[in-house]
């Protein structure tokens, strides 16, 4: 985003290479983080011990302490990598729309919902963020905030152009991000809807939420 | 609801007396459940032991086992009492609108958001429901489903009357309930917005989501 200096970009340290924001290869996490993720999902943050993670990952305890310091470090790494990835994708999705506000909005919502489904395992860890220590929480909040600001800017722009009708761009942004986040609560890979189905439907629902009557230009065919 | 036989009503065993769906007295839980709630919130389900709850509540361990069987029983009691309460309130809110679909919809959304804020502590336990054992999960899902069906029926009715415009009443219902549920993730009693402010704003946002252009009749003044 032009308004941010590169050094201050909270996503910069989580850069991974993303070719196409709609294309999701299976998530590849380092074995320690993959094991931590499974444990957090099964037993929650407080129900997980670093010893369990070491056992599951097949590494020594000191190795985990060396790489991640402690259990908190594992949660931080997982949350930040997920949020960093969706932020990168959302910026790409936004850019692709080339300034057309309806497409920017549709792309970004689609992208966020694709993340909540294709990356449901890490995305659903968001409910564990209350266990972050204050400094880590602040850092994670900055990443989240960047995503919120991207969407807010688009909604405000749409309202300014007279394409959207909202009472408050801030409230609507928060409501829409909550709507997307909640998908992780019910989405199941074996369910009847694919991530692409859900993303498409949510983009339509979100367009009504911002009072848009015009549908955006047709999207490229789904993969 | 007329379509349900009284015996089959999943809310019936959670009846508490509610005078006015908009009025929330502070939540009064039996001491054991109040202690369990605090522990679950601080340490998560798996991070909580029945021993911790007994200590906090100042009761003996056998007393908890006698009353709630085990830790699972504590979570079930909390989740069901919260969902039972919101369901009762939502039905009252719906009834009050006397069949006017815009008011029914506005009231029910307002009611759900009031629950997510005034009852944030119990409502946010929803993220722990993945730890419910299958039979308990099924029972809780039935309560949730009843709320979903109430909202779905209103949206479908609004669409049938030509007042709402949605692509799918089912998708929109799920999206809106997710939007409301997500409020528990950021709401704070010391924040700048009161539960009534948030409920009012979300009712407005939700009206756009269902494509309603007409605002409902003014609501009674907030308490």
Automatic annotation (TrEMBL), chains A, B:
GO molecular function terms attached to this record: DNA-binding transcription factor activity; transcription cis-regulatory region binding
Keywords: DNA-binding
Highest rank taxon of the organism: Bacteria
Protein name: TetR family transcriptional regulator
InterPro entries: DNA-bd_HTH_TetR-type_CS, Homeodomain-like_sf, HTH-type_TetR-like_transc_reg, HTH_TetR, KstR2_TetR_C, Tet_transcr_reg_TetR-rel_C_sf
DNA-binding region(s), residue ranges: 49-68
PANTHER family in UniProt: HTH-TYPE TRANSCRIPTIONAL REGULATOR RUTR, TRANSCRIPTIONAL REPRESSOR MCE3R
Residue span(s) of domain HTH tetR-type: 26-86
